[in-house]
Fold:
Amino acid sequence: MQIGSVLRTERLGMRFQGPGGEIRLFQDLDLHIDNGETVAILGASGCGKSTLLGLLAGLDTPTEGRVLVGDTDITALDEDARARLRSRHVGFVFQAFHLLSGLTALENILLPLELAGHRDAQRLARDALERVGLANRDRHYPRQLSGGEQQRVAIARAFVTAPRLLLADEPTGNLDRDTGHRISDLLFTLNREQQTTLVLVTHDPELAGRCDRVLHLDGGRLVAA
Amino acid sequence: MSTLRLALRMLLRDWRAGELRLLALALVLSVTAITGVAWLADRVAGATESRASELLGGDRALVSDRPIDEVHALRALEQGLSVSRTLEFASVILVGDRTQLAALKAVGEGYPLRGQLQVGDDPDAKPETATTIPPRGEVWVEPRLLMQLGIAVGDTVELGARQFIVGRVLLLEPDRGRGFQSLAPRVMFNLDDVAATGLVQDASRVTHRLLVAGESPDVEAWQSTVQADRAESVRLESPGEGQPAVQRAMDTAKRFLGLSALLTVVVGGVAMLLTIRRYAARHLDRVAIMRCLGATQAGIAFLFTTKMILLGLATALIGTVLGYLVHLVMLALLADFLPSLPSPGWRPAVTGIGVAQVILLGFALPTVLRLRKVPPLRVLRRDLGGGVLKGVGVYLVALAAIFLLMWWQAGDLRLAVYVFVAVTGTLSLLGLGAALVVGILRRGWRAGGGSGVLVSAIGRRPWTTGVQIVALGLGLMALLLLSLVRDDLLQTWQDGVPDDAANYFLINIQPDEVDDVADMLAEAGVDTEVRPMVRGRLVAIDGNAVDAGAYEDPRARRAVSREFNLSWLERLPADNSVVEGRFWKGGDTVDPQLSIEREFAERIGVALGDTLRFRFGGDYYEAPVTSLREVKWDSFNVNFFVLASPGFLEDAPATYLTSFYLPEDSQVLLPRLVRAFPSVTLIDITSILEAVRSIMDQGVRVVELMALLTLVSGLVVLLAALQVTREERRFESALLRALGGSRGLIRRLALTEFLLLGGAAGVLAGAGAAVAGYWMARSLFDLDYGINPLLPVAGLLAGVLVVTVAGAAATRGLYRVSPMRLLKSSEEG
Structure:
């Protein structure tokens, strides 16, 4: 296992043009996340925490500063290079699950494996489905699964490529309390087993409390809780 | 009034939002196709109606294969009517060693009594009205003859035994254009020159016309005297009824074009159903809010109906204008065959507006009307009311609308049912094929594991994929059928014709010329037989008088109502085979008997053993039918429906004819033949076949235009399906990017999807066209045509090209969406 920070930002800032002039979402964010660490980012609605998560994943480019995944400055990479990096090192879990409705549970998990060109895709996908407890649901389509089950498929999809970094955006936000609990259990268990670095964005303090470190995004600054 | 304004405002808003564009596009295409045909039909029909007298050349005409009794003309003159005569026949025109079959027309003083001849000094001259008929010693010719013979006005040509100067170019002849005669270029000359040419003998095949014109009551008085005592061989023609064959052909063409225009409506209808469904789904919330704010169900229904009617009016206007342009293209394509046309009327525009409303009411209104059932409670519970758009009712209404339109175009319930079943059957088969393709691709993706993601788009959207394959397939199929299968059929037919099949006919050989003609042919090394031919009328079958009116089949009616050709011979020709009874053996000693071609016998209701009675001139001949034959007409040898045993008809007035094959390098024989036997008519079959082919080509091009509109409608379906799946595609693209897919990969995925989609539609269309062509060849044209395995390949290429280009263009930019939008839901919440 690699020692040192797996994810780092330097003087990260984001602003954009709004109807009433320039809006500065945040600036001068310096963040170090170590390998295997779990970090929660808390914040009010519209404070820019999802935007921050997108920048960490290289889905968007910042207006200032840079983001480093391992030793790679992803802000210096082009779109496709960032996509390649994601396919190897980054997993995602979304609030709205974001499964493809025309694909079965198993096929949804196969998707990132195929994008990354894995040889043993079928076996890996089945293993992943089994680990989230849905081995018997492999042929079900998302609409035939409950919300909790869909998020479990999404978690299996996120972990199946064994990413170094897992980014989760309100993973329990669309679920009831009990289901949310079970999903977060699963998330943290798998994270531990695979020694993944987890960054999650939430406004649920309880979920945040399960992380090693909790940061507040407030007024454009990251503050440790 | 306020609802109307509200509806208009909402419609404009929808338009700006791009919600109704594809619906409108599909509707415009449908109206374009239908009004294009309507404009064409209206103007051509107008030309025939308003100019019926001109088409006849007079108010009444007596027509006969024999000279017309002088008494009719004298009576007409007595009654103060104007009179003129014409004589039409085919003969060869000579310029040095070059020969060209021409449709000759000798015209008498006064011609034409109705309408005007337009002439000029060269083919491109501005037409001027001729005030006289061609003076003696002069011929007026159609422009194409000048090109065919390489001559100009002022040059000399030979017609039979006389030389003529080409005086003018004939640019418009009002009473032109009847069947076979119109295939050869017209040569017009003075009736008084006929005798000098020596071209017309007693038994020559010519058409005499006596034209009469004057005040209506006088004409009618004359008509009643003529009807009382005209000879049986003389036919009286009045304006309009004179050209039943042309009329019928036009009616058939109009129906056929009208029905092919409906294919565009069928395919466009799919696009309309797709877009209106999406439109309605996107309006669920808006309607719920309106209901919540107090709009009644009836109010909502009225609002949306008004919106649809306004949309229908707007699209009808555009579609009618485009249809007008399409009809101009069709007129240009058909230019060689159309008379000069009256100015366009307004009726087709009304048709366009009516049709647009029917289509909208059938395809769009039922769906939007369901919106009135959206419960107002949806504003609180978003899961309510989503189901109001479900159900098969809208499809049934759409099918009913299509059927009504077919009924209207066909003007005949049975034909409408037939076409409806054929179209829906084809659609179902294409649908089945599409389901098969989608099924195989899905299975392939499941089984393949590794490469699955590349074909997954098809499997992920089986319904929209299937619909697109069917709609595009139908358009492509119509196009392939018209272009490739037509060429195939012609080729098959030509291949069936042996290389040494006769390419020339000599007809009108007089009995005293038979030996000399035969000798000249033999000397030139031409191997052929000269056959006798007598023209007679069938008067009784088994003692029962023949009544033309009793036959339903128009061809049978025509056959028995005029004289037809019989011959006699000793032995059965090689290209004939007896299928029933026995053919006679031996020479002059056999009893009188007849042998009839099987299909012809069936048509006129004659069976083996029946006794037929014929009249030749004033004499009657009677004999039993002792055999039925099948004839290989492809050989182009001289053949007859009715053959008599030798000796039986030898007293009847006969002319002789023959056919032979002459290789291109021995054609110097032709001018020698024509000069030696001026009254013999030489017919060049190759040039006639070419003329037939060019007519077919021009007709088919018009239908191809319709098929092209259908294909464009298919593309609108593709665009509609892309619009329906737009959100899904954006989301997929964003997700794939988030999961690490490159832009190139996403573009390749879309490209693969279009390749597969176009390929599947193309292969199915090709296979469909091959099967349809096979069926048509066998059952309609009686050709031994196999299934062309290249058609699916051609379909594949065409489909891939069309769909990939259109699809890639339509989705450009769609895949550049930022994956950040996946995180948006939480950003908002």
User: Anything to note?
Assistant: Chain A has one domain: 5-224. Strands of chain A lie at 5-18, 21-34, 38-42, 64-69, 72-73, 90-93, 165-169, 197-202, 213-218, 221-224. Chain A has a mean pLDDT of 88. Chain A touches chain B through 42 residues (CB under 8 Å).
